[in-house]
Design brief:
The chain is of the alpha+beta class. 14% of the residues lie in helices and 25% in strands. The protein has a three-stranded antiparallel β-sheet with strand order 1-2-3, with helices on one face. It is globular and about 40 Å long. It holds the Pfam family Trypsin. One of its GO terms (molecular function) is serine-type endopeptidase activity. It comes from Cardiocondyla obscurior.
Length: 77
């Protein structure tokens, strides 16, 4: 678990530019949000493409679901 959080912490340090974000409405009945409206939300990306979401829980930490990293990171006990 700690390894996953460390990897995510490193991955988000690069930051995102507004030009690199693609907007696709995915939530039925949801409302569009402007950039920066929900600063505690994170887009997890691989090779520039969004694959899962996460929540910013600290300055250097993102919390996400384990299925988001299935196949990307091996977890050993």
């Amino acid at each position: 678990m700690l390894l996953i959080l460390c990897v995510l912490g490193i991955a988000i340090q690069g930051g995102l530019s507004e030009e690199s974000i693609e907007y696709f409405p995915k939530i039925v009945g949801g409302n569009p949000a402007s950039l920066g409206q929900y600063p505690y939300q994170a887009s997890l990306r691989f090779r520039g493409r969004h694959f899962c979401g996460g929540s910013v829980i600290d300055k250097r930490w993102i919390l996400t679901a384990s299925h988001c990293l299935s196949g990307y990171v091996s977890i050993s006990e």
